[in-house]
Amino acid sequence: MPARVNSRKSDTPKRLTKVTRFEHNTQVFIVRTWIERREIENAPTERRGIIVHLGDGAHRYFTRLDDISAFIRQYESTDTHRKIA
Q: Which of 58, 59, 79, 85 has the fewest CB atoms within 10 Å, i.e. is most exposed?
């Protein structure tokens, strides 16, 4: 059976233009979380994770969600807070 083709006009080029317009001041991060069992009997499980900045490869392991925002804050710039017209 042939694949279905969407005959509706695509707005992809318009969306890509908007995305690339802001690419110069964009930071990309990957966050992975998992649950670890403790070796101590009947101890509660712990949520752990890692956040990686794709631009420079810097990373941080964490057990608290607050550590994610602290890591991201290192990459903030006053330019990213300008009002966009």
A: 85
- The phi and psi torsions of 16 (rounded to 5 degrees) equal -65, -35
**Phi, psi for 71 (deg, rounded to 5):** -65, -45
More confident residue, 83 or 57: 57
Separation of alpha carbons 33 and 62, rounded Å = 9
1 inside domain? no
Give the span between the Cα atoms of 14 and 65, in whole angstroms: 35
Helix or strand (DSSP H, E) at 42: none
Strand residues in the chain grouped as ranges (E): 29-36, 46-53, 59-62
Q: Domain limits at 40?
A: 34-79
